[in-house]
């Protein structure tokens, strides 16, 4: 069985072999199933972009097998609910005429373009605070003085008054609280959530009203118009949302510091809503003997893929249309890496090619004597052949 490590190494050789003068089509050497197995082990979007730019036949192979789409689905399973991919403001878009085969090819090519840019966007877009505004809290002790809006205020003190959100008091420490936020767009990749419990410096002993643990959910509103038009109050019905991702439970420490809760993998939030579930209470207020949870600051670190990408969610199926705005600011198609930027990388790949040629023969079932293989003949002829004969016309980018 071919390991992903071997597959990635093999693919690096495939990418650079043409640059170094080996005018051979490795996709013709391998069976299609083996080629797909090798290429689907890639986890760097730029590798697939480079592969699809090597030649017409390689581009067709990548498009026909939907390799960019498969990579995006591996990175973000939430994309499995995509029902359709469309391009907006694309001057090259043609009217859908012709045979069913030509329409299918146009669909595959469109999906390739969109998913290729999307995959590169996951790794290249800037990371920043991704919360647009606070929506609601399951309870608020003194509204609006202790509103959830205060959790987005970077200062600890505003107008000589401590800035924080406070829940209502509960005699049962197991009663949870929920905070809901609107993210900066409907299509955001979130890496981590940061929360700082509030320290009541004005109370005896300066108690810290943290939760025992925290859990996160991402999703969309059943009716975005209803959510956006409703004024923020003390609570917001949870039934107005559909949560499509739920994290593990993270323990929270009773410390007045900005605590980082890093998600195991970056999560694609489709719909633009974040729910923070605060589980368990640890601090009782001396004045009334009730348990409270108080939060000073909340941050969600991630990447907004808007305006280049947007979604249109269809209910009740939960499927959505993925939209790529070609003319959106900052929406540029991914470019190939500079092949001459790292001389050492080329030297390493020369060694890789020596190793991979017998490996490819093995995949074909041919026996190879590693000790007798004429590496020097390959090494001496590569540069000369590349300079004098050039590349086969089929392999011109």
Number of strands: 18
- Mean pLDDT value: 78
Strand content: 25-35%
In whole angstroms, the N-to-C terminal distance is 32 Å
Shape: elongated
SSE pattern, N- to C-terminal: HHHHHHEHEEEEEEEEHEEEEEEEEEHH
Secondary-structure class:
alpha+beta
Q: How many distinct folded domains? A: 2
Share of helical residues:
25-40%
Radius of gyration of CA atoms, rounded to a whole number: 27 Å
Q: Which regions are unreliable across 5 or more consecutive residues at pLDDT < 50? A: 18-22, 331-365, 367-397
Summarize the main sheet: 6 strands, antiparallel
| Total of helices | 10
How does this structure look, described?
The protein is α+β, with helices and mostly antiparallel strands and 397 residues long. It has 2 domains: 4-124 and 328-395, no CATH class; 128-304, Sandwich (Jelly Rolls). It is built from 10 helices and 18 strands. Helix 4 packs across helix 7 (100-124) and helix 6 (67-75) crosses helix 7.
Topology, element by element:
Layout: H1 4-17, H2 26-29, H3 32-39, H4 45-52, H5 56-64, H6 67-75, E1 82-88, H7 100-124, E2 128-129, E3 131-137, E4 157-158, E5 161-162, E6 165-166, E7 177-183, E8 187-197, E9 211-221, H8 224-229, E10 241-246, E11 250-251, E12 259-270, E13 273-281, E14 283-284, E15 291-292, E16 294-304, E17 309-313, E18 320-325, H9 343-363, H10 375-389
Parallel strand pairs: 1-18
Antiparallel strand pairs: 2-16, 3-7, 4-5, 6-16, 7-13, 8-12, 8-16, 9-10, 9-11, 9-13, 14-15, 17-18
């Amino acid at each position: 069985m071919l390991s992903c490590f071997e597959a990635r190494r093999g693919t690096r050789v495939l990418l650079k072999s043409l640059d170094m003068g080996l005018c051979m089509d490795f996709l013709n050497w391998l069976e299609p199933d083996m080629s797909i197995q090798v290429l689907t082990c890639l986890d760097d979007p730029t590798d697939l972009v480079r592969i699809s730019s090597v030649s017409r036949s390689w581009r067709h192979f990548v498009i026909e097998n939907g390799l960019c789409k498969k990579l995006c689905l591996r990175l973000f399973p939430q994309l499995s609910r995509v029902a359709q991919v469309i391009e907006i403001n694309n001057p090259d878009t043609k009217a859908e005429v012709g045979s069913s085969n030509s329409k299918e090819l146009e669909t595959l090519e469109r999906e390739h373009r969109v998913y290729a840019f999307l995959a590169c966007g996951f790794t290249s877009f800037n990371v920043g605070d991704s919360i647009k505004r606070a929506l609601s809290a399951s309870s608020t002790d003194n509204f609006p003085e202790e509103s959830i809006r205060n959790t987005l205020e970077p200062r600890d003190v505003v107008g000589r008054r401590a800035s924080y959100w406070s829940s209502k008091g509960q005699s049962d420490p197991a009663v949870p609280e929920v905070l809901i936020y609107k993210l900066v767009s409907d299509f955001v990749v979130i890496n981590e959530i940061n929360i700082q419990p509030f320290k009541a410096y004005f109370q005896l002993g300066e108690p810290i009203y943290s939760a025992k643990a925290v859990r996160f959910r991402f999703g969309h509103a059943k009716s975005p118009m209803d959510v956006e038009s409703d004024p923020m109050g003390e609570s917001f019905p949870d039934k107005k949302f559909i949560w499509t991702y739920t994290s593990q439970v993270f323990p929270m420490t009773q410390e007045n510091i900005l605590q980082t809760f890093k998600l195991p993998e970056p999560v694609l939030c489709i719909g633009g809503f974040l729910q923070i579930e605060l589980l368990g209470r640890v601090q009782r207020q001396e004045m009334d003997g009730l348990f409270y949870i108080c939060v000073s600051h909340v941050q969600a670190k991630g990447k907004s893929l808007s305006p280049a990408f947007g979604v249109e969610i269809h209910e009740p199926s939960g499927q959505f249309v993925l939209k790529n705005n070609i003319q959106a600011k900052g929406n540029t198609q991914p470019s190939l890496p500079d092949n001459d930027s790292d001389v050492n990388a080329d030297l390493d790949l020369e060694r890789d090619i020596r190793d991979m040629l017998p490996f490819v023969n093995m995949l074909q079932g041919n026996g190879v004597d590693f000790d007798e293989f004429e590496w020097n003949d390959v090494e001496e002829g590569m540069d000369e052949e590349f300079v004098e004969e050039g590349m086969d016309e089929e392999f011109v980018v």
